[in-house]
């Protein structure tokens, strides 16, 4: 039978003591913040309705319309109404991860149809007539093609990059002309790559013109990608498969394995090209960058097993490290603090030494404006070293005094870190729970982006009459006159491309306007669609904060249940599952409330950023200052709300109260222990950071050492490639582990504070904290008389 007694803590606040209190139990719980949960469900229903409406009425093809090098929308702008496909002079230039930022550095023009035949000027110029060549030629503008009257004009236009030198038979993909690789071209591909004569006995189906056509396709393919010539770069092994063996099975054998293998090799080649283009932005020489890109991709492919094994070892090391933290937390933390203090002493000594040296050394400042010279001037400035030594002295004194004053609280923090290690080790399934949140996050992001794209495609195209710019950036002065329905069309005003093309001309011969066009401006979304876009953005914010809050409360309920179990070996099985069910059954309304507050704050910040972007062109000092203050205020407010919400979820998981009550209780509890809160937060952050660095560095060093000392197992061009991948992935893995660990420490800290206020160590009110914490605080549990007599 449970005995409830009205008590007050040492601060005079009422406590209803329950001697059987064990934290987040489902007994006597009820649903919290139900109205907010209903609002959240209705909001999600409205979001689903908007998504359905957007999919039914939107058209993503409107957003996928390609744009040529003259900023004309293919098939939409007046000058290219009948040209809906985009043709690339050199498609390989677009295989670059920086294309979304820098653009595709090759001429792009709108065409009526994608090329149905292969064209290679160097091979065809002596075998085809001028008319045939001119028919196959693709140029930047119709004027460039119309000006061609001889083969010499074609050669000149190609040299000036006004016409394409070669292209391959293509098929439209999203209204963009992409290469079409036939079965026969795969047969020819190996010999072209080896740059050898074809065997005279080779016979392909069809007539000689087809054979010639296929050979031209293969030659064009070779010119398109130099990377394919090194599809199997040498790695020093004597057991290299011939290129003809590795590539020539593209279609030759009708076996699934051969086809899949060839597709994988083509993927590796294209990936090598992409990496090579990326490296070219930071590496001297296009050829060297391409080769380096191929070597990087080859190392990634060859070291897959090593990387996976290293990451698996990192995962095990993280688990073992968390288990060991109960013993090594104190040595690590004190060693780190001493290391920081010693480092500051060395900085003080070195800075003062440099200050004395440069004060007694006469130097002439370097007058170059480049960054390196300015950095050298800064290093030779004695005042800089003086200020640096003063700052290091202040930092040393402050940290040293804080360590002395807060040494007891640092010991409490270390003990709580050890307790967190025990909790995570006991309920090891909590380490893998973030995977569930990741899946939900990815689904939410994909849904919000999809709905946003469909909403953005709802509306009508708006057009504006504009004049083109010359290569030097000057505006053309073509006298384009419109009549009939377009008589009121003026430059900069709205227009219709059909009317513009039919009724606008530049002379009495009614020649079409060439330098003046009716160009696409934007998709004019109706006002309701714009509100729906804002609804979609707010829905994304609310749902993502809700998912994060759900994960926090489930983990908090799990670790709180561990703390409030007097004998830790009696922690029930499936604690995480029970916490999940408890949160889902009782506290979704509280999560909706807390996430709504954060979503509103974040939405206000986004609106302020939008207003700031719009007001930049006015360059008003007053508005900039006001916006800066408001942005700073709401950033601080959001940071505070995130901290408060996290602790409110912990209190709700423990006591089952609504959001406002839990937030008030958590805030009061933390403010009564302000110094402990600050100490714990900084100490644990520092300790966890050191732990992540240690695990990441260990994974990277171990991987590099293994690759360097076992060349017979795997041969690589650059050992740094797989090592870098391991370091990045290891840091992510350790961050996930220590994110759960941090939640455990925060939960146990609140439980510890409440344990100190709720209990006094008597048999009726024993402490639930560990013996180490009781020893640090000078407390202990008094044994009941029976147990004393039994002893």
UniProtKB/TrEMBL annotation:
Membrane topology, as annotated: Multi-pass membrane protein
Location within or outside the cell: Cell membrane; Membrane
Key words, A-Z: Glycoprotein, Membrane, Transmembrane, Transmembrane helix
Single GO MF descriptor: transmembrane transporter activity
Taxonomic superkingdom: Eukaryota
Transmembrane stretches, start-end: 34-55, 306-325, 332-352, 384-406, 427-455, 540-564, 585-608, 620-637, 686-707, 727-753
The keyword Ligase appears for this protein: no
GO cellular component: plasma membrane
Protein family: Belongs to the CTL (choline transporter-like) family.
PANTHER family: CHOLINE TRANSPORTER-LIKE (SLC FAMILY 44), CHOLINE TRANSPORTER-LIKE 2
Biological function: Choline transporter.
Protein name: Choline transporter-like protein
Organism, as annotated: Drosophila mojavensis (Fruit fly)
